[in-house]
Amino acid sequence: MTTLDIAADGAPSISGGPALAQERRLVTAIPGPRSQELLDRKAAAVAKGVGHTAPIAAVAAGGGVVLDADGNSLIDLGSGIAVTSVGNAHPKVVEAVQRQAAQFTHTCFMVSPYEGYVAVAEALNRLTPGDFEKKSALFNSGAEAVENAVKIARKFTKRQAVVAFDHAYHGRTNLTMALTAKSMPYKSGFGPFASEVYRAPMSYPYRDGLTGPDAAAKAISVIEKQVGADNLAAVIIEPIQGEGGFIVPAAGFLPAIADWCAANGVVLISDEVQSGFARTGAMFASEHFGFTPDLVTTAKGIAGGLPLAAVTGRADIMDAAHAGGLGGTYGGNPIACAAALASIDAFETEGFVERAAELGALMLSRLGALQAEDPRVGDVRGLGAMIAIELVDPATQAPDAALAGAVARRCIAEGVIVLTCGTYGNVLRFLPPLSIGDALLNEGLDVVAAALAAEVSA
Ligand SMILES: *Cc1c(COP(=O)(O)O)cnc(C)c1O
Hints:
With 458 residues, the chain is α/β, with parallel strands linked by helices. It folds into two domains: 147 residues, Aspartate Aminotransferase, domain 1; 257 residues, Aspartate Aminotransferase, domain 2. It has 14 helices and 15 strands. A seven-stranded mixed β-sheet has the order 4-10-9-8-7-5-6, with helices on both faces. The protein has a four-stranded mixed β-sheet with strand order 1-2-3-13. It is globular. It starts with 32 loop residues before the first helix and ends with a helix. The relative contact order is 0.15.
């Protein structure tokens, strides 16, 4: 029954971290028998709504690989959805977690404060964009951070409306489902949704053909006509959209939106839950676009895999909420904070920002070459280690979700974990751990190219 005894079967190691052999190795079909056994238990015990991408039972991970219970070693091009940016089981994170777990596991920061939480807030205030005075509050998940950013903006502005964009993804709680654009699978059947949420058109250069300023003018016109600045508490936007398709807005779009928000007393929230923490070749993606948000939401990459999230921003806005108005039992858990401090140390001292840019250059050149020879690759886009290809019908540019799904499944069967995304489901996204080596990344991209070539579109 146990899945942890595979060392006895001759697999090189089941401890994770960078010591794990950095290779793609298939010793069974995917899923192998031990993975299948777990998937059968999952089907019987876990709610169907909780899906999975790779049909494996993970037992260890580190560097650029995930090891399964059958001894297969898969190349990781997903990082558990942009979470393990410093690498799975990074030694500093492991050490910090072990030390903190032995010290104390919980007091509730609202009952008995502790240093780790304050130190994470100080680091976030220092690292996020903007040289004004900042404050932070910590939570458990990206969705919870977004919920709290909206609460804070409403309290500060004394207004209610919130604008989000086409293709936006902000989470799965009730308010964040309302902010999220795509119905299936995130929202369908789960309404009614929170009110006072409005949607504006996003800059999507591949499909709208607009310059950044023109796309911003279009969005601002919708906001002014359909909401009205006097009613608007916040505009929330991902500087590079994640689940919505890794859409990079045209130059000038974000600064124009930011200028309009500033001129109209609207709080601009940059949702950097996916794009933050070195992922894009800058500590925060907002830095690439020449604008400074009022509030930033962070999560995913912040703590090397432990659940932690934050809202950080202008001190006067953050302080608008009354004492006791923000918080939660677990928010800023001491073990998660210790992991975040270790991860932030790694981000700042181990060259991960530069490494993300290098990985991005490698991926862009490989995927650009793929686009040049295969017209089904309609667009290659992204920044740093947050890169995607959009697959289309070459004649019409119509999204080809079936092709994206088939390529992703074929990659996983060949031992490479690849994620899809996009409103139309036709985008393959690449989010390798920043600890992956060039050789392994190149091998992963070889498998992607072969999988694409093997799929003959209808
Ligand atoms: C993943 C994500 C969220 C939600 O984060 P959870 O931790 O899953 O709640 C919110 N915003 C963006 C941009 C995300 O990518």
